[in-house]
Amino acid sequence: MSDEDKINRIKELNVILKKASESYYAKDESPLSDREYDALYDELSRLEEETGVILAGSPTQSVGYKAVDFLPKEKHPSPMLSLGKTKSREELASWLGDHEGMLSWKLDGLTVVLTYENGELFKAVTRGDGETGEVITPNAKVFDNVPLKIPFKGSLVIRGEAVISYTDFEKINASIVNDADKYKNPRNLCSGSVRQLDAQITARRHVRFVAFNLVSADGADEKVLGSANGRLSFLESLGFEAVQRMMVSSGTVVEAVADYEKRIASYEIPSDGLVLTYEDVNYGASLGRTAKSPRHSIAFKWADETAETTLREIEWSASRTGLINPVAIFDPVELEGTTVSRASVHNVSIVRELKLGIGDRITVYKANMIIPQIAENLTKSGDLTIPCKCPVCGADTEIRALNEAESLYCTNEECPAKQIKSFSQFVSREALNIDGLSEMTLEKLVDMGFIREFDDLYHLDRYKEKITNMEGFGEKSYSNLIASIQRSAVTTLPRLLFGLGIPGIGAQNAKVLSAAFDSDISRIRSAAREELSGIDGIGDVMADAVVKFFEDDEHSLILDELLKDLTIEKPAVSSEQNLSGLTFVVTGSLNSFENRNALKEEIEKRGGKVAGSVSAKTTALINNDAGSASSKNKTAKSLGVRIMTEEEFINTYLKE
């Protein structure tokens, strides 16, 4: 490549990376994967070094992207720089040398600076472009775990990551009607949640703040301020959640990285790597900084294990919303200790960007060592045909552009795929809980015309002879199925509401609705938007969805027929509401209770609340394996939350 070509490539890379940064920081979108961005960034750095040409505003010299306009802006007292990075474990040992270090998670959220004055939260500002951030103080005050007051009265400035756990991310995505509108990852959801104009929206998103650096603490003990770990321990003593960490030396850091590697799959907070910091703060500060990065810390990015394979098929999978998702099927390969043969391609736009074709040689990897992805298409035949007919019903498909991405949809409102997915939710454990009805069995029953609406499930005895002659069925299977259906006919309103598939109403929201209307389905059917939106945890979007669902004549007719077959009982409520105001998290296997749902129901029956993740508000974590290295155990220990066995919980709260 000539010098002229190199300079042209530098210009091209500047445009690509700036556009990607703008989407990432200002629009909460991710046009490039971390892998793709890092590869282009490294190429730009190399070309700049080779040519000596660095354009104004080069991504290698600037940090982040400018703050969006709808929030007040504030200039940081000193620039917030990005860390230098490496993918070599040995380089971490070399970088550390003879010094002690602190190794911690590199969290994938939105960096926020908190300032406390006279023991109270005074100000919260996002990182923004590193020079100027956005003031989000009202939103920070409703984060799940941010102390509003602390015992330390001096001026205190700390940096941390605002994050949303995978559990809360999945719950929020489950409440979104259209698959194409769902958030791609917790980081995008967190970024939008932190920067809301309405703090009520932020509060509903369960944002957490995890401190990773103490910037200043006027009047604090110099011995505390002298060590990186001491600073975080000091913050924990004030009530903050600090990032999980361990002390390392050059001789132990490689082993420590391997330990984190084992834990990343079960870690509840999104992480895209690790951070190694000199334990001696003064030594780290004495090293100064480069134009872009401080020298007191270095980031370690996971070197994705890739494997080359052959694309054999694109499976187009229809959902109950009509979205048809492309899934790549390829020759099995070993990645991160497991065999992988499938990867979601997400949408039509990505299919086209990768120029996919059957028989192409592709490389695959696990994003953050968890989710299989296609890294690169080596042959790029680009001859894959986007189906013009739905793979399930044969109706016409159409490509719709949403959020700058094109996705494929089935246009048939009566598509069996939509029916099967709806029936699958209706019979699921958290809904009517009917055993023996897998999607494959449901598909057979739909194809044979035995079920068209929900209430048809309660009249399958009409087809006993034909069902017992179905492949995989017999007298015993039929009898077990009918018995399970009969048991499900006596149910509760939360189960029914969730089973109906009302857009945005998950299992937990169904419980909230039922409680608000005293388990009276007629009151919910006639409730106005204002009445529904006023319920804590429901809001305008879900209220509109509920009203629209019950206003639909077809839905009303289906429900009327279904109610003829069901007996709706009020959820059991113990006269002893001894768990009122208490919050528990349940994890691991159980002994006395049949499953976690049974324990959760017992807690809720007694007025308690069951959360998906541990926070400072958690009363106790119920875990029979209190000595495990699970992320929930570690979080509980770091927050001082009690960890109790199932037996201890029963003896403490359930026995008189």
CATH-defined fold name of the largest domain:
D-amino Acid Aminotransferase, Chain A, domain 1
Strand content: 15-25%
Q: What structural class results from the helix and strand content? A: alpha+beta
Average pLDDT, all residues: 86
Please bin the fraction of helical residues. 25-40%
Number of domains: 5
Count of strand segments? 24
**CATH first level of the largest domain: which class?**
Alpha Beta
Q: How far is the first residue's CA from the last residue's CA? A: 81 Å
The profile of the biggest β sheet is:
7 strands, antiparallel
Rg from alpha-carbon coordinates: 27 Å
Approximate shape: globular
Note the total helix count.
25
CATH architectural grouping of the largest domain? 2-Layer Sandwich
Q: CATH homologous superfamily name of the largest domain?
A: DNA ligase/mRNA capping enzyme
Write up this protein.
The protein contains 25 helices and 24 strands. By secondary structure, it is an alpha+beta fold. Strands 12, 13, 14, 15, 16, 17 and 18 form a seven-stranded antiparallel beta sheet that branches. Helix 1 runs antiparallel to helix 2 and helix 13 packs across helix 14. It is globular and about 80 Å long. It starts with a helix and ends with a helix.
